[in-house]
Amino acid sequence: MPGIFGFAGKLDPAGTEQLLPRMAAALDPADGYCVDLHQEDGIGIGRVSLGIVNPERQPIWNADQTCCIVMEGELYDSRSLKQSLTQRGYQFVHDNDPELILHLYEEYGDNLANQLNGAFIAAIWDRPARKLVLVNDRLGLYPTYYAVIPGGLVFASGVRAVMAAPYVPRRVDPTAIAEFLTFDHVLQDRSLLQDVRLMPQAMIMTFSDGDVNFRRYYELQYASPYSLRDETDWMDEYNFLLKQAIIRQAADELPAGILLSGGLDSRQLLAYLCREAKTTSFLSFTWGIPGCDDARFADEIAAKTCVQHRFYELTPDWLLVKAEEAVRLTDGMGNLVNLHALATLDQEAELVKVIYKGFLGDAMMGFALRPQFWAMYDDPTRIQAHLQVHSDQGVLNYKFGEYPQLFTEPFQQTLGDSVLQDYKSGMDEAGTPQMADQRVFFDFRHRVPRMTIKGVEVVRSKTFVRLPFADNDLVEFSLRLPPGLRYERRLQRNAFIRDFPELAQIPTTDTGLPMMSCFRDVYLRGLKVVRWHLKKRGLDRLAGRDTRHYKDYNLWFRTVLRQWVEGTLLDKRSLDRGYFNPEFIRKLVSSHMSGENHAGRIGALMALELWHRLYLD
Fold it and tell me: Is the pTM of this model over 0.90?
């Protein structure tokens, strides 16, 4: 997977001699990647890249060879910054994004990132100051991990590459394990290792003279008070900013495609991409079970927008081939039932260099908002209300009340209330009493960069990924949008209906109905009523199914993948790790094989066990 890596400080020379090549190989061992390395006394930095965007070799140096940079990702709409620096006497030899960031550092020092819009991670080595500077984008869209060790620092775009350093202890973080099993993602800056941490969002991280310092250059902050405007004004601004974000990111002519589902976000992006993108060879991709709702609706959307469409079957046995790769790319922090983008990625990468995703659109525009949030509670009840919404949405794999059955007593004693405290802190960090804003802030700061991003990371292993909803101006807009207009994604849906009524008449997978009133909506609602009456009379076979999902790990884990699941989770090595009560795991697997649905729970346990086997055993 593309990314950067390196070390700094007074480290044992014997341990650093081949450290950069080992880190590069750990980040991605596949052939075909561009690998750039630079090492001198007290510092080593490198990059692994697909060579699609900013393909020039790195590090890039300034004019007097005093500072250099490695970077992965890209900046958007940076012409004005380049013009300003040119007027100040800076020359652009490569005219690329890392060179721009390097000149901004020369001009503004540690304040270089204030004006940057993009998705990126960069490391700058300031030779005269003997200082390493790491900077990421506002949302941390290129997750980067680090370990502070005696006399130095190790960092990389993957925990596995940090682990390549012999100085980094391999002590498991019990709280991170419990959080991953509970929420499907880890909270705060944790990783599965106690000594390896996630670099926070919008961060300037510096290492000099053995000291590590952090400074956040941007804060997610909701409006207080909110402005009162006509809803059509909000829609106009939203559509303008989304169009602007797409124009910024689709400024080149690289062969591109989009992962197209039957939902709203990807069809909204596709509609604007067809209007604004410069590329003439645009494709759309959908994967799933043949005949699923996503496949049918996406096919209609592609036909309406006149793009070439490809459907790939999501076969039940893909995990037998690629599960370990999925675990490696996500450092064990991605549930296997959520990583199927990897299943058909090779076929998609043969056709395009860039893939667009509807990442973040639902989260920032109100997908998680529920009626419980419009009330004032005492503090313990407030947290329980947040947890209730997580549970109602099906994003709690294990509830706190199940900990005594799931975990061994020593493991649970180690945990204490650390998971709940991390969760509460995640909500409190929003700095607002409005619960709707607390939840969306939590998603911005924790769920999106710790869980949703995993689907992006696996796709980045073969193609460059663009995320228009993560544009700075669009995110800022969402922070100003009153919660009532985000509830049920009201503004996003109404803005789309107004601008693309033909696409809004195609049903969405969340409801199975069109987004607007039309003949098809009346027909499908009538059909639902007929099905309800047939089922009430016991005629389920005649009624058919209301929805057809694109995946069925519930079935696959008890059929095609049964031997693999049982052979992994019920193996003595797995049961003896000391984390889980063996009898609970046996009953969980048995009840799933008998017909109960524990697919999400099993997918998380499988990811953890495979990670242990790959990196700790």
Answer: yes
- Cβ count within 10 A of residue 223: 14
Burial label for 231, CB within 10 Å (0-12, 13-18, 19+), is middle
For 261-315, write each residue's pLDDT tens digit: 999 999 999 999 998 876 667 999 999 999 999 999 999 999 999 999 999 999 9
CA gap 46, 161 in Å, rounded: 11
- pLDDT value of position 278: 65
What is the C-alpha to C-alpha distance for residues 467 and 417, in angstroms, rounded to an integer?
36
First vs last Cα of the chain: how many Å apart? 23
Query: H or E element: which one contains 48?
Result: strand 43-49
User: What are phi and psi for residue 69, nearest 5 degrees?
Assistant: -145, 145
Q: Which of these, 556, 81, 45, lies nearest to 319 by C-alpha position?
A: 556
Cβ count within 10 A of residue 172: 18
Helix, strand, coil percentages in the chain from 3-state DSSP, rounded to 5: 45, 15, 35
Tally of residues, the chain: 617
Strand partners, 133: 124, 206
Range 543-581 burial, b when 16+ CB lie within 10 A, else e: beeeebebbbbbebbbeebeeebbebbeeeebbebebbb
127-134 average pLDDT score: 97
Q: pLDDT band for 325, please (50, 70, 90 cuts).
A: very high
* Structural domains of the chain ordered from first start: 3-171+194-216 (3.60.20.10), 231-364+463-512 (3.40.50.620)
Instruction: For 220-243, write each residue's pLDDT tens digit.
Output: 999 999 999 999 999 999 999 999
Beta bridge partners of residue 35, listed in sequence order: 48
Q: Which residue type does 117 have?
A: N
